[in-house]
Each structure stands twice: as C-alpha cells, then as structure tokens.
Amino acid sequence: MKIRFTPEQEAFRAGCASWLQQQMEGPFADIRGIMSQTFRADRRLEWERVLGQARWSVIGWPEKYGGRDASLAEQVIFAEEYARSGAPGRVGHLGTELAGPTILHFGNDLQRERFLLPIAKGEEFWCQGYSEPNAGSDLSNVRTRARLEHGPNGPEWVIDGQKIWTSLAQFADWCFVVCRTEEGTKGPAGISYLLVPMKQKGVTVKPIRQITGDAEFNEVFFDGARTKAEYCVGNPGEGWKVAMGTLAFERGVSTLAQQMTFRNELERIVEAAKSNGAASDPLIRQRMAEAWVGLRIMRYSALRMLSRATTGSLGGEALTYKLHWASWRKKLGELAMDVAGAPGELCVGEGYELADLPYLYLFSRADTIYGGTNQIQRNIVAERALGLPKEARGDR
Amino acid sequence: MQFSFTDDQNMIRDSAREFMSERCGSQQLRHDLESAENFDPSLWQTITQELGWAGLSLPESVGGSGLGMVELAIVLEEQGRCLYGGPLLASVGLASAILLECPQAEAREAVLARLASGEATAALAITGDRGLAGLDAIDMTLHEEQGGLRLDGVASFVLNGHVADVFVVAAKDQRAGRSGYAVVAVDTTVSGLRVEKKLAMDTTRPYARLTFESVRDVVLLAADVDGRTIERGVQVAQVALAAEQLGAMQAVLDLTTSYVSQRVQFGRVIGSFQAIKHRLADMMVICEAARSAVYYAACVVDEYRADPVTHAQELAEAAALVKVHCSAGFHDVAGNAIQLHGGIGFTWEYDAQLFFKRARATYNLLGAPVVHREHIARLMGLDDDKEVA
Ligand SMILES: Cc1cc2nc3c(=O)[nH]c(=O)nc-3n(C[C@H](O)[C@H](O)[C@H](O)COP(=O)(O)OP(=O)(O)OC[C@H]3O[C@@H](n4cnc5c(N)ncnc54)[C@H](O)[C@@H]3O)c2cc1C
Fold it and tell me: Which terminus of chain A, N or C, has less C-beta within 10 A?
C-alpha cells in the first residue's frame, strides 16, 4: 500500500501544471473558475479543442485515438492539476468520460476509428439519451423505438420517440440513445445502444429551464431520425449491458477532477466565511471541518477504487461512492448558503443571475438525482453489496 | 501510488481474521468479560509468542518485526471486529506510539523491547479525571528532588491500565528551570502508585485510575517545551484507535445485515423493506469511508515516521480526520444496529449493545469529534489573517 507518487510522476505533474497555468492565465483567463455548465459556451468549446490539440483531453486513451496511454497515476495527477489550475468544468465530458470509454470498451474497430479521435480532439460533442418522460429511475422502461430500414443509403436505423433531461444536447453533434429495437419486448431485453447524429432533420432539441435559471438540459425529440446500421454498440437487442457499462465509467478517473472542483468550491466557502465573519461561528466551523473530512475521504476512496480497478474487481468503495459524494455536495451547498447569509438571497446583475455560493446551493440539489438518485443508489448498495432482497416491481 | 494491500498485507489480514474469529468469537468474549483481566491471558500469550503481533510494527532494533502502521492497522481492525479487550491497542497502538516519539535512548529501547517480546504490556496515562483531550488535560507533575525525580498526580481513563506492567505517563515538567512537558515510564510495582480498576459503561474494556504520590522510581524518556512528543504520539495513536473502530463498525454492520436477512415480519424478511435496506446502505457508506480514511492515515503515519519533518502537518490532518469520522461513524452505525434489531437489540444477551457501548467509549477516547473538528477548522486556515482584520 503506497500513497506517494514517484519523482518521475511529480515531474509529470509539474509539466501539466505549467501548461494549464499558462492557458488559464493567458488565452483562457476569461473562463477560469466558471461554475455553470453552459456559461460562455463558445469559449468552453474552444477550450475543449485546445485541450484536444495538445493531447491533454483524454490522456488515458491509447495514443492512436488521441490519448497518451497515460498510467493511472498520471491520470490522477492530471485531474488534480486540471482543477487546481481553475480550468472550467469540461463541456465535453459526456464524450470524453461516457461515450468514448463505452465505444473503446464495447464498440468495434469501425466505431472506434470513426468516433474516438473527434472526441479526443474536441471536434465532436456528445449527449446522453437515456431518460424519458416515463423512464427515469426505471430506465429499462424506455419507449423510444428504432427499426432497421434498407434505404438508398444502405441499412439505417430509424428512430422515433422522446428523451428528456438531456444535458448539453444543444451543443451535441451525437447522442448515445438507449432505445427499443425489438417489438413487444419489455424491460432490459430488446434494448439497443445507438449512436445517433444530432444535426439532422428528424431531431429537435428544446431547452428546459432549470432551477438555477440556466438551461443546461433539454427535451430531445426523435421523429424519423436516422443513423447507420453499423452505429449500434454491442449486438442489437443487447444494449442494456452497454448502457450499464457506461454508468460504471462515471466512477472513473474523472471523479478526481470532480473532487478537485469540490475542493475549489470548499475553498471559496472558506474565503467567504473569513471575509464576512462566519468563520468564527463555532457551528459553521464544525460544519466546515465536516465538509473537509468528507472531501478528503472522497479522495481516498477514489484512489482505492482506481487502484482496485487495475485489478478488475469492483469493491464496496465503488458501490458507495456516488451516494457519498452526492450527499456530501448537497450538504456543501447548504453550508455555502449559510455562509453567504442573507445577502446570498439577492440576485446579482440584471436578470436571474446568482452569485457563486447561492448558485452552488441550487445546483447541488441535482447531485442526488442525476446518475441514479440517492434512493436508487441505496437500493444498489443494499442489493449488490449487502445481498438484501431485490425491490419488487409492480408490473412484471 | 497503489492504494491497495500488497500480497503480504492480504496474508496478514487473512490469518488475523481466521485466528480472531476462531479464538475470539462472541461466546469467548462473553466469557472473558466475566474475568478479572477482561480478556484471556493465555490467548494473549499466543498472540504475542506465536503470532508476534505485539512486535509487528515495532523496530527490529528492539526485537520487533519492523513492519508499519498499515500492518498494525490490519491486525487492530480484526481485533476490533471481535471487540477484543486485550492489550494490543493500549500497549502497541497507544503507549508505543508515544514511546516512538521520544528520543531514541537506552531507557526507551529497553521498554520497547519488553513490549515487543510480549514480556510486558504498557498503558498510556495522559489525561486526568475530566478525561479531556490535549495537553491541558494532564494532571500529573514531575519535580526534581534530592537529585532524583518525583511524580505526583492523577491519571484516569487509562485503557487496560488494570493489567499493564508499565505506564507511559505524560506530566507537566516542573523541575527547576524547566517548563513544558515530560514523558516518563513507571513500572506498575513502584511504591507510591495506586492502580484502581474502573468498571465502565463499556464492559468490553475497563479503565484504570492511577494515583501517584511521591513516586520516585521514574524513568525520564522525553522532555520538551511544547509537548510535541505527546501530541504527535497521540496523533499516531488516534490512527490505531480508528483502525479498531473500523473493524468493530464493519462487524456490527455485518451482524445487522445477517439479522435483517432472516427476521420475518408481515410475511417477508425485514431486509426486503426499503426503509431497512436504505438505512443499511447508509451504514455501509460510513464503513467504506472509514476504511478509506483509516488506511490512508496509516500510510501517512508510515511516511511521517520515515520523514517526520516533511509529513508532520499531514499527520495532524489525517489523525484528526480519522478520529472524527470513525468515532462519529461507529456510533451511528452501532446505534442504527440496535434500531434495526428491534427489541432484541436492547437486550444484555445480544451483542449489539456491546458494539454500541464500545462506540461510545472510543468516541471520547483521545478526544471527541467536536474537539478534532475544531483542530481541523484551524488547520483549514479559518483563523488565518484574523489578526489583520
Ligand atoms: C441536472 C440533471 C441533468 C441530467 N442529465 C441527464 C442526461 O444528460 N441524460 C439523461 O438521460 N438523463 C439526465 N438526467 C435525468 C436523470 O438521470 C433522472 O432525472 C434520474 O434518473 C431520475 O429519474 P426521474 O427524473 O424520472 O425521477 P423518478 O425516477 O420518477 O424518481 C422520482 C423520485 O422517486 C424515487 N424513486 C424512483 N424509483 C424508486 C425506487 N425503486 N425506490 C425508491 N425510490 C424511488 C427517486 O429516487 C426520486 O426521488 C439529468 C437530471 C438532472 C437533474
């Protein structure tokens, strides 16, 4: 058991840190430290491309797909330095963290050749087409349908249906769509995992305004939308396994970058508390310490999880991870708002614009919902890790 | 960076688990609690002589195996699972942690050698009757008299003090021209020392209260102005204690999981009710977080020992962190365990109460979470720049 990095790895750290610092103090100073996912989107997309060109976007991927074949330790280091530099949240994360790893792992060579490099270079952006109006926690209830048609362009999937809560669909070139390809099937059977181009006639994106006032997520309507027959990941009808695999990638190295973002948020709260006097309130101090403890532990659990991932098995720390961080961040949001005090209730600027801490407070309410709600996570922990009986279904 | 056990560490874990579960199950525990020692001396003999756990983490120069805190934590975790009451934690986890902070001198090596071989056990005496944490809690004084030393005062909450052969004592240094704190070793047989066994709410492990009246037979191990020897030693001890808490909280979670998988109400096992599943899931989150924290902190201790100057701050942070999380977490998990058992959880017969009481006792030991959170608040820099304002 070893927690230190080698001198070579520390040298690697210095290398990424200085590149990132140059970018964040120079050409991208204007987007440093942005919290919202959608704010200054054009510049954020440009940043993705610069990351890609410099091969810093997906360093763990093979070199031929735009990565650096970086070791786990190097990926950890880069993630930490990324956040330390104040670089903004990755608008491309649905491609780099979800679509890409899924295609790398479950896709075939044709798909890998077609899709990976554009993701790595920041040339194509992705969104996640899972949730539907009647399929949220119960994802296997999806109704969106696709059928294979032999038209003038060869065999194609034709897709009809609706997705909802689709984050960043307004910027996306592609969507990975979980849909039903076998008539009359129910539940996980008969589902396929299709890669569908967004910029086409049969796809309509309608933004949904969120609690924060932003519109990061959308409704996506598929109305005879088309994609090539070969853009199905895994065998047709066996997409459920792939869909679940994608969710497992959320527990990857990106969690470390996310944590460093959390660390930056906690630091902002500390600064705010010091400047407005909340830092001397004994109860606030206790909660600050509790937040710090939870954050540190998150890092240790992530290192455990990643160390174990190299051996291929999933431990208790991995199954409990989402529940830990989501609950932690919601509490952090509450702490942020309490530190901000009454002035935090007021908008800043012209429209519905909130200061950072109140924004964090509102946004953190989503953490226990997306990526599997806390209730669903608890079911997973209880059933898979503790071996307790499965939930009964009402309809099957 | 490879934050997982090595093959050797896995082997230590497996053999410790096997040994402890075979030799120290619930029945044996109940039997031990009725004895004067609160543990089985012959089992302790096996632990020290055959398994060599007393010397596991002590330096080879004193006859130990020279392994680190990670290995000690592994064994303490397994002992915690069984709520073992023997002296490993008190002697090696706590007392030796302070000894190893004292300057390396013949007297210190002699004490450590006795502990490593299992010939003697030590107990740590650093707090007075109020049981507070930190240097202010010390109710002992060291004076110089007729060219020798004289120790007076009271030390309470001395874990396993009722069986210890030697006490590692923290005292206020009041010798002429001195200030600060001293660490001394005192054999249990010296004249002027009275040792009272104190029954505690936690029946799994009693405390002792020590009264020193002009005790002259004192071996000085360290004297420093700022009390750093004691503070750092206690930080290391917190990690050892947390490892034991981790084992116990995992065990009470396992106990509860197996109970709810069998108990039937309303025609179904109660473990199929979501209210119960979800609470168990939350308990598991706490346990897994504790596991991450304990082993990370154990690694920090090993690094600190290799290079104290570089890693002192990190040790302070890690020690506070594990103490906060494992103390509050164990208490939560054990409390929930009682609830999920219903009436039987409230009985003397059933083990849930033993875990709950151990949780409570270790909550305060070496400082309650509230105290350590305040340390953390300071380490986080919440008070920096205050003078300026
Ligand atoms: C900010 C944000 C971004 C998102 N981005 C995307 C995206 O990009 N792509 C995408 O596909 N989806 C996305 N989602 C959707 C998200 O995955 C779903 O909201 C989530 O899975 C919950 O589904 P639901 O909204 O239908 O709620 P429901 O499933 O209807 O849940 C409602 C409540 O019931 C509880 N509940 C449901 N089932 C159970 C059960 N078995 N036991 C106990 N309680 C239960 C839930 O925990 C919840 O509290 C996003 C959501 C948010 C908030």
Answer: C
Residue A76's domain comprises 7-91
A167 touches ligand 1 (CB under 6 Å): yes
- Give pLDDT, residue A260: 84
Q: Contacts of residue A274 in chain B, CB cutoff 8 Å?
A: 381-382, 384-385
Inter-chain contact B295–A386, Cβ cutoff 8 Å? Answer: no
**Domain shared by B132 and B102, yes or no:** no
Run of H or E including B210: strand B207-215
Q: For residue A81, tell me if it sits in a domain.
A: yes
Tokens linked to B155: 């030390």
In this predicted structure, the answer to whether residue B389 has a pLDDT above a threshold of 50 is: no
Q: Tell me the DSSP string of B117-153.
A: HTS--EEEE---TT---SGGG--EEEEEETTEEEEEE
* Tokens 């020392």 sit on residue: B193
Place of tokens 């044996």: B28
What residues form DSSP beta bridges with A238? A191
pLDDT above 70 for B386? no
Alpha helix stretches (DSSP H) within B3-81: 7-23, 26-33, 41-46, 69-81
Which of helix, strand or coil describes residue A219? strand
Number of domains comprising chain A: 3
> Which two structure tokens, joined as six digits, stand for B198?
């104190």
- Whether residue B257 lies within 8 A of chain A, CB to CB, comes out as yes
- Which two three-digit tokens encode residue A331? 């509490």
- Tell me, in angstroms, the distance from the centre of ligand 1 to residue A129's CA: 13
The β-bridge relationship of strands A217-228 and A191-197 is unpaired
Range(s) of the domain holding residue B175:
124-225
- Start-end of H helices in B222-380: 228-260, 274-306, 308-341, 352-364, 369-379
**What's the token pair of residue A341?**
């005090």
Whether residue B179 is found in the same domain as residue B252: no
With contact defined as beta carbons under 8 Å apart, do B165 and B121 qualify? yes
Query: Are A301 and B377 inside 8 Å of each other by CB?
Result: no
The minimum-distance atom of ligand 1 relative to the CA of A131 is 11
- A366 Cα nearest atom in ligand 1: 53
Note the pLDDT tens digit of each residue in A50-81.
999 999 999 999 999 999 999 888 998 999 89
Distance CA B230, CA B242 (A): 18
Q: What is the DSSP letter of A132?
A: B
- Any chain A CB within 8 A of the CB of B325? yes
Give yes or no for a contact between B29 and B93, defined as CB atoms under 8 angstroms apart. no
- The answer to the question of residue B103 being in a domain is yes
Could you say which of A4, A286, A308 has the minimum Cβ distance to residue B303? Answer: A4
Q: Is the pLDDT of residue B388 over 50?
A: no
Q: How far is the CA of B226 from the centre of ligand 1 (A)?
A: 55
Do B141 and B166 reside in the same domain of the chain? yes
pTM over 0.80: yes
Contact at 8 Å (CB) between A26 and A80? no
Burial, A158: exposed, middle or buried (Cβ in 10 Å; 0-12, 13-18, 19+)? middle
pLDDT 10s digits, A263-308? 999 999 999 999 999 999 999 999 999 999 999 999 999 999 888 8
Taking the C-alpha atoms of residue B242 and residue A82, their distance in angstroms, rounded to an integer, is 33
Cβ pair B2:A385 closer than 8 A: no
Ligand 1 and A136: CB distance under 6 A: yes
Is residue A168 left, alpha or beta, with left meaning phi > 0 and alpha meaning psi from -120 to 50? left
For residue A303, the chain B residue with the least C-alpha distance is B3
Task: Say yes or no: CB of residue A141 within 6 Å of ligand 1.
Answer: no
Which domain CATH number covers B53? Answer: 1.10.540.10
The reply to whether B108 and B145 lie within a common domain is: no
- Min CA distance, B328 vs chain A (Å)? 11
